[in-house]
């Protein structure tokens, strides 16, 4: 690893190169997020599916574990396919963003698994609020790293939902979660997918 | 020799330069964390003060105000300390520093809103509330650990997450208090002291070079 602990200030060329790299990284990070926009949509739909199963189908205890595992399996299968194909991976440039989402995903899974096994989910509103805050935290950190106001709005929706959960009844907190999922996951994911489509169309036009 | 990548048109030298720059940035990010390690120690002590006040002073005032007062004092001391702190020579802020700072700032903001909402509604007695706080701190450590490729911080994240999960299973006020105490000592103070030691060693090296 390079030792950067020298008393000499960085040269101008160095600074220019850094700024260029920083801008490139932000652009690539955003591109990676728009490329993975479908993941937001998928998780939003899986949340809806889990709640619908819990309410209308038999064996409601399996609703969340099955839906969460299904989501993880789809993402792993897609990553495996990506690795096998020659499609370019975004690599270290979007590492910070994947670190944010990976850590938040891991924490939510562990938190919810522990809460479910110890029967704390239905009794304590702090559990439901925490999940909304965790998701808001991931959106907020990504938004600041990528300087992306649309994602900051998604973070605000999740945090607003998290606050609301503390003030409303248990049944109303489900509605809050559904609304936050719709705006903060599905709609944001669709918006990201739209940006990706537009970018792809521009690329095709430039090549033509 | 300056072989070109046929797909991106980037030369090998360019890639090597970029890699070196990235490594330098990761090193800077770690340097940034060790430089601000006193904040971990400060928050460990602030939390210990709040915990001791709540547990050892059995008055209504302590029960209601111990945590709000300690948390506000922690925020004030953090900002005061940052205002007084001098940046070390030759260590400019890089992308990694900015990202680590962003993650911790967002964690602080999320936690402040979460804690305030729970306090207003008197939900702070719930085990899941304490578990969520531990999980959130663990999350920030985990993200920093991945960005800075720092195993020690990864271990600290695991300690926080293990504590958060354990609270649910032990399901008692005494166990929750005990876990909090361990987390404050290991995940905050011990990690902060370790990072400060690294910083002090670096400071010593800087002085030796300057002499």
Report on the architecture of this protein:
- The complex is a heterodimer of chains A (208) and B (211).
- By secondary structure, chain A is mainly alpha-helical.
- Chain A is built from seven helices and no strands.
- Chain A has one domain.
- Chain A has helices at residues 12-35, 37-56, 63-84, 95-117, 125-146, 149-167, 170-207.
- Chain B has 211 residues and is an all-alpha fold.
- Chain B is elongated, with a radius of gyration of 21 Å.
- The model of chain B has no long low-confidence stretch (mean pLDDT 84).
- Classes of the chains: A mainly alpha (208), B mainly alpha (211).
- Chains A and B meet through helix 1, helix 4, helix 5 and helix 6 of A and helix 1, helix 4, helix 5, helix 6 and helix 7 of B.
Summarize the entry for a quick read.
Chain A is an all-alpha fold and 208 residues long.
SSE layout and pairings?
The complex is a heterodimer of chains A (208) and B (211).
Chain A: H1 12-35, H2 37-56, H3 63-84, H4 95-117, H5 125-146, H6 149-167, H7 170-207
Chain B: H1 12-35, H2 38-56, H3 60-84, H4 95-120, H5 127-148, H6 151-170, H7 173-210
Helix pairs in contact in B: 1-4, 1-7, 2-3, 2-7, 4-5, 5-6, 6-7
SSE series of chain A = HHHHHHH
% residues in beta strands of chain A: under 5%
> Which regions of chain B contain 5 or more consecutive residues with pLDDT less than 50?
none
Work out the radius of gyration of chain A: 20 Å
Q: How many domain units of chain A?
A: 1
Largest interface: A-B, 52 and 59 residues
Oligomeric state of shown chains: heterodimer
Based on Cα principal axes, name the global outline of chain A: globular
H/I helix tally of chain B: 7
Global mean pLDDT of chain B = 84
Class computed from helices, strands and strand pairing of chain B: mainly alpha
Quickly give the structural class of chain A.
Answer: mainly alpha
Largest sheet of chain A: none
């Amino acid at each position: 690893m390079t030792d950067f602990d020298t008393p000499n200030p960085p040269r101008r060329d160095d600074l220019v190169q850094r700024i260029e790299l920083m801008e490139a990284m932000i652009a690539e990070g955003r591109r990676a997020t728009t490329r993975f926009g479908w993941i937001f949509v998928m998780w939003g739909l899986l949340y809806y599916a889990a709640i619908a199963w819990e309410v209308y189908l038999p064996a409601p205890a399996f609703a969340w574990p099955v839906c969460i595992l299904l989501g993880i399996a789809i993402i792993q299968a897609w990553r495996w396919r990506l690795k096998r194909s020659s499609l370019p991976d975004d690599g270290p440039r979007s590492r910070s963003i994947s670190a944010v989402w990976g850590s938040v995903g891991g924490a939510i899974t562990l938190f919810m698994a522990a809460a479910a096994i110890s029967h704390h989910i239905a009794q304590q509103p702090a559990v439901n609020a925490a999940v909304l805050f965790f998701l808001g935290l991931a959106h907020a950190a990504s938004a600041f790293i990528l300087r992306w106001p649309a994602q900051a709005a998604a973070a605000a929706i999740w945090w607003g939902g998290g606050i609301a959960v503390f003030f409303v009844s248990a049944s109303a907190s489900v509605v809050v979660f559904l609304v936050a999922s719709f705006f903060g996951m599905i709609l944001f994911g669709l918006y990201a997918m739209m940006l990706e489509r537009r970018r792809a169309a521009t690329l095709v036009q430039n090549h033509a | 020799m300056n072989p070109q990548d046929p797909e991106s048109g980037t030369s090998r030298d360019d890639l090597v330069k970029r890699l070196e720059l990235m490594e330098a940035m990761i090193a800077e990010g770690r340097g940034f964390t060790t430089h601000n390690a006193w904040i971990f120690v400060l928050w460990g002590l602030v939390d210990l003060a709040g915990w001791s006040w709540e547990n050892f002073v059995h008055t209504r005032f302590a029960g209601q105000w111990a945590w709000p007062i300690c948390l506000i004092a922690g925020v004030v001391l953090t900002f005061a300390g940052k205002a007084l702190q001098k940046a070390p020579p030759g260590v400019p802020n890089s992308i990694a520093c900015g990202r680590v700072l962003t993650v911790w700032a967002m964690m602080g903001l999320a936690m402040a809103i979460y804690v305030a909402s729970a306090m207003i509604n008197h939900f702070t007695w719930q085990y899941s509330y304490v578990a969520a706080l531990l999980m959130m701190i663990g999350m920030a450590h985990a993200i920093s650990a991945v960005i800075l490729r720092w195993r020690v911080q990864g271990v600290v994240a695991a300690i926080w997450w293990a504590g958060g999960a354990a609270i649910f299973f032990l399901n008692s006020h005494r166990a929750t208090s005990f876990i909090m105490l361990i987390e404050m000592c290991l995940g905050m103070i011990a990690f902060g002291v370790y990072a400060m030691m690294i910083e002090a060693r670096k400071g010593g090296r800087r002085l030796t070079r300057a002499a």
